[in-house]
Amino acid sequence: MKSTLLGLETVWLEAECSKYAFFKDVLEQTTPEVAFVAIDDDTEQAVTLVEEISRTYPDTAILVASNSTDGNLILRTMRAGAKEFLPQPVQPNDLAAALQRIAKTKFGSEGGAGQACKIYTVAGSTGGVGSTSLAVNIGCELAKNSSNSVVLLDLDLCLGDADVYLDTIPEYTLTDVAQNITRLDFTLLKRSLTKHSSGLYLLPRPVQIEDSNLITRDDLQKVVNLLRATFTHIIVDTSKSYNKLDMLAMSMSDAVLMVTQLDLPCLRNVVRLMMSFEHNEEIKGKLKIIVNRVGQGGASISLKKAQATLGQDIYWQLPNDFKTMIEVRNNGVPLLEQAPKAQLTRAIAQLASDVSGQSLDEEPAVAATKSRSWLGLWPTRSESDPEEATESAN
Ligand SMILES: Nc1ncnc2c1ncn2[C@@H]1O[C@H](COP(=O)(O)OP(=O)(O)OP(=O)(O)O)[C@@H](O)[C@H]1O
Ligand SMILES: [Mg+2]
Asked: Does residue 266 contact residue 292 with C-beta atoms inside 8 Å?
């Protein structure tokens, strides 16, 4: 039963209970949306339990499983308040269908707890185009809405730096979560992730570069399934190597945000990537082209010409704002915090709103306590070194 439940994308197994007598205590602590009672050990005690749960916790839907097909027993459990009666051994499809019926009556077709998780992958047409900056800041924008729970997955396994953008030294990484996937419960998962004060959770890349080879497609699939059951939005920051994991992340996504700049090497790569994705049914059609650093001057190609070269509409434009971005990077704070009124911040907020179909005007989430920080390792965190700034500008 446990492995069946864990195999379902939409289910989070909150707790297990081995005795009917303790079941109500477990419910009190966890207040789940669904309670599952296997009634065959002691049908009398189990039916009484179902009756009590349905009276005390009317918001918890009760599912019952039994080897018996006795009509009387089925009738009694349903009268006691069970929503579904499933024959043992429970088939994954039957269970999924029962849970769907419950979700439908409980949440209707609207969002809420029944809302499906959205996955947005941020990819880039070459190194340094601004994909991590976008992934981090779009994540913070989405996390601003208190009905969202958002996690950023850093899939740039060797050189990912999302932790630096959020000025946090995480305790656990993607490797830890992948290796302990079958043992993780809800509390442990959330505890393994780092929560930023914006409300955004981060699952970082492995600490050791060598560990990046340990993560398989199967691991990634399982981690994403687990995150899906827990979060309303997953943002994935991919590497620029378009390896198997990056491709899997894109194929699992609802949208792939392809960040580019207006120069020839970048645009040529976008064309090449688009040609390659053309043959991939799971990615094709999900690509949204984001032009970053618009207005940076120099040898930029015009937007009109870029659009003509790409043969696809440019989905979003993000202005060049070198000064703000340098501060954001050096202070390890998101745009929302560093420069809430900047044009770039507004452009990313509108992009987050458009891609998610949500209005994101709510107040920021309550600040979380931060554990350790990268910038805490350095004596100062406010003044940026002018030399470094010039170097980055180049
Ligand atoms: N709109 C912008 N205006 C000015 N500077 C920007 C903008 N977006 C990003 N940058 C700067 O560009 C640099 C690269 O950004 P970022 O790390 O987000 O890119 P990336 O595509 O993730 O790079 P990598 O390939 O290393 O993963 C950073 O210094 C960042 O501050
Ligand atoms: Mg990056």
From this structure: no
The mean pLDDT value for 357-383 works out to 54
Instruction: Kindly give the pairing relationship between strand 314-319 and strand 287-294.
Output: parallel
In the reported structure, the alpha carbon of residue 185 is separated from the centroid of ligand 2 by a whole-number distance in angstroms of 30
* Rounded distance between C-alpha atoms, residue 65 and residue 1, angstroms: 10
124 within ligand 1 shell (Cβ under 6 A): yes
Each residue's pLDDT tens digit, 329-343: 999 999 999 999 999
How far is C-alpha 135 from the chain's CA centre? 11
Q: How far apart are CA 114 and CA 95, in angstroms?
A: 16
Choose the residue to mutate in 163, 269, 325, 391 for probing ligand 1, maximizing ligand atoms within 8 Å of C-beta: 325
What is the rounded CA–CA span in Å between residue 313 and residue 348? 18
Q: In sequence order, what E strands does 142-261 have?
A: 150-154, 194-195, 201-203, 233-237, 255-260
What atom of ligand 1 comes closest to residue 160's alpha carbon? 27
Residues 95, 86 contacting (CB under 8 angstroms): yes
Beta carbon of 260 within 6 Å of any ligand 1 atom? no
Write the CA distances from 266 to 68, 128, 195, 236, integer angstroms: 64, 11, 33, 21
d(CA 58, CA 53): 7
Identity of the residue numbered 207: V
- pTM above threshold 0.85: no
- 379 is written with which tokens? 């004596």
Q: Who contacts 174 (Cβ-Cβ below 8 Å, separation ≥6)?
A: 153, 154, 155, 157, 203, 204, 205, 206, 215, 223
The Cα-based distances of 330 to 40, 58, 130, 164, 376 in angstroms read 61, 51, 15, 9, 12
